[in-house]
Amino acid sequence: MKQIKVGGLMTDNVLSAVPATSFREVAKMLAEHDISGVPVVDDDDHVVGVVSESDLLARHEPTVRDLMTTPAVTVHAEETVADAARLMVRRGVERLPVVDEEERLVGIVTRRDLLCVYLRPDAEIRRRIREDVLSDVMELAADAVDVHVLDGVVTLGGRLRRRSQALTLVGLAERVDGVVAVVDRLSFHEDDTPFTYPTRTRHDTSW
Fold this sequence. Notes:
Layout: H1 23-33, E1 37-41, E2 47-52, H2 53-58, H3 64-67, E3 75-76, H4 81-91, E4 95-99, E5 105-110, H5 111-115, H6 122-137, E6 146-150, E7 153-162, H7 163-174, E8 181-190, E9 203-204
Parallel strand pairs: 3-4, 7-8
Antiparallel strand pairs: 1-2, 4-5, 6-7, 8-9
């Protein structure tokens, strides 16, 4: 099941600073380019920190070396948008420098970039669930269950043969790019899960 990767959304022409960059220089960079922060890199383009407007406002040190937030929270280009979004929320950051396999800076992704994924049309989300999840992954008929999507909220209804199929379907639907939440109204003929399995509840996409 295909998911949008960070590399497909990131800005690859990214501005950066070095530890020796002065307070004045970085403040000018943020103002001229209307951005709220930049990654800080060493001589090998490895990300060593991030400096933001809040760092500048909180302190007035002469160089970025004393201003930047370290260690930097980074993400790899091959990670999914959902994983990047969860990382942003968990670490409380507005942007993530994107690095390659050798941890060198290749781009940057912001919360605004990630939110664009959640503007995917409802019809496209429904098609992805029917074709990618039901047909390709679960090898069921595309119309095996009712799939309704409104403003990114997916409602799944109908009856499947096994409870494990219903649980799998809900979990996979949550991972489809653009899905905000999943409402589970599925039933099943056979409960093939262990008796200790937790009660199935409605699932919400974690941000």
